[in-house]
User: Fold this.
Amino acid sequence: MKNFGFSSIKTRVIDYDRNNKSVSEYILEREPSFALCIGCGGCAATCSAARFTDMSLRKINILIKRGENDEVRRLMNKCMLCGKCTLVCPRGVNTRNVIFLTQQAYRKLDNYAV
Amino acid sequence: MPDNKEKHIVVIGAGTAGCTAAGQLAREGYSVSLIEKEGEPGGKINNWFQLFPDRRKSEEVKKFLLAEIDNPLVMINYNTDIDSIVKENEEQYMVTTSRGALRPADAVLVATGFDLFNPQRKEEYGYGIYDDVITSVELEEKFKTGSVLTSKGIPPRRVGIVHCVGSRDEKVGNFHCSKVCCVTAVKQAIEIREMLPGTEVFCFYMDMRMFGPYYEELYREAQEKWTVNFIRGKVSEASENIEGRLVVKVEDTLAGKPLKMQVDMLVLMIGIENSQSGLRVGKELGLRMGMNGFFMVGDNHYGNNRSNLEGVFYAGTCTSAMNITDTISHARAAVVEIVTYLKSKVREDS
Assistant:
């Protein structure tokens, strides 16, 4: 396609009504503690991967719930599944399982429907 | 031993604080005049269907209040306004109501309560403009009728709840936190989910202030059992789209991005301010005001029933936002202060 020098900028706004939230539903069904996150960031503070990358489980938790799937896809594979986050979570969220289920859900989403 | 009945205390306001204090003073043997501008006791409790955190019927607390004031020593004056209060002599106040002068008061208890924030002052939320933007109190009224429907007469598919409407907002002149709205929002979110299992509920909050016993537990229950969604961010505006559905704009501060979402009903958690009728009493008496618009208490730590005037005391939410439990405790503490004060007067006389 010819480039006439115009481009459209993708909006930053989370369009909740259009976003696909099926991954969130998939995780909630299998790991109900996912709902208990209060965004304190304890998981991200202790995260080994976060020291060297922009991995943040606190952020991933929210982005999954809002259906911001592109960003979750980009971040989720930076996790090394060490499980330190699970040890610090004050709300008892099984964070390691959340990441595990996230990766599983996207694999399914990409192959079939979740 | 002097007869306590000779001593007369005027209690202004027959809400939770006023009724509790009036009943307790009467049990101590004092004569009480209870002045209420409305036609019934209970004050703001009459607005409520169920109470946090245990979802008890508010009628039960009202029954307790009615039992408190059911005492021959409590003279109740409904539909009565305060016209003037003047210091009669060194020890007594002359209170004149819209029904005439009362017998001189040896002590006055100000239990004038709070007013709810008028949400039309936050025009961006569209209260009074869009039919499906309602207040927390109006939602309680819907709960009382047993069904929650939108203005179109159908159950909402999605409800948004906005925290801090008129609280923690210097744009409306209120720096203070109204304390009870966060837990009210959580309670109401659960009630909606219970009544309408297919309806999604979103709470838009700045901070979740779960200060009381079992409040945090209720918050957890809302998340875990009722899958209520919480989005941290102050709603900037509500508008209506072409289909007549409300559109909410908010910064999702934990995602670090702005968010927009359609809802069928938007519930505003309106805050607590000192009441206009209380302010008139305060002006009449010359009560000292705090920076937050409530009455300034004698001492923040050990004298929060005392005023700047001898013989005038405070009970309840005219001094700050409080839940019912704290209001009742504050009212009982006021009785202790009043009794101590009156007894010290007796000793001086004899």
